[in-house]
Predict the 3D structure of the following.
Amino acid sequence: MTAVTLHAITVLGHDRPGIIAETTDRLAGLGLNLEDSTMTLLRGHFAMTLVCEGAAGDAEIEAALAPLTTDGTLTVTVREVPVEQVPAADGTSWILSVHGGDRPGIVSAVVGVLAAVGGNITDLTTRLAGDLYLLVAEVDLPADADAAAVEHDLAAVAADLGVGVTLRAAETDEL
Amino acid sequence: MSVNPRVRDWAVTDLAVTGAVRAVVRAPAPVLSTAGAAVDPTSPEVVQLAADLVATMRVSPGCVGLAAPQVGVAAQVFCVDVSQHPKTREHHGTFVLCNAAVVASTRNEKAREGCMSVPDLTGDVKRPSRIVVRGQLPGTGEEVELEAEAFEARALQHEIDHCDGLLFLDRAAGAHAVYARKTYL
């Protein structure tokens, strides 16, 4: 029996209708099962990352997806990855929002505050719209982190950058 | 907002049957995506189902509502009790409604929802925060109309959605508005 493996695949480049349809059709043709995926447009560029499971090897997947890249507008990467064990979180979940005038270093300064206390970003979006820069992130803080102190440090960094920052608890209504 | 005293004063003991705890089904169980049938709220089966829903809700940690499809029955019956929840404002305590529908709503608010039947995901859902719901009480079949706000309004809509075969996933606020759950009750 062939071992089932996980493969991380990225597709990046010029957007057009049908990229996802073509990509997933080729993966289905290899018997691969799409597990988690995310896709968005980054300044108009198509950007998709997905993890799929199946018996096909990296080289076989690359060959199957090669037609996507022949006109030079898309780049595809394929890499086998191990199964990750996601540890149960015993910390707290937060949503970080930052927005203000665009300037270099906003993201690194803000997320540096989180990294310093062992905070882990589990989802991140940044957008530049005209002069407005926006960052929204899902953040896990360790159980022993002092959220009020993190907020204080974020406010100090934000003041230096001239941007606004908010850190809100990501509460879930259990229904 | 005014609380409907008829609903507030309703108690599961009015049903005069003992509720049994039923197993809660999880997506992708097809029953969760099936519109529930209208029921006769006076029938013995529905009275028993109503009591069972309350019993099952009460033994489930953090549970503020449970709909018939969540115990595997495609029927328009659900129970709610948000009285112990910190986000609750005015409320009607424990009650069960049959064949319920939202008949008026205002003030959309977005919040992240979790559901016993979708244990590994949460999602942002926009819902009206002030609603009027019309339905029937199990046992007597009496038609009631109640106003609900805030957390009770959200819980009612979540349960009515279940009775219509809809999960919060069907109302996700966007492609990036569904999250892997990080903490479990």
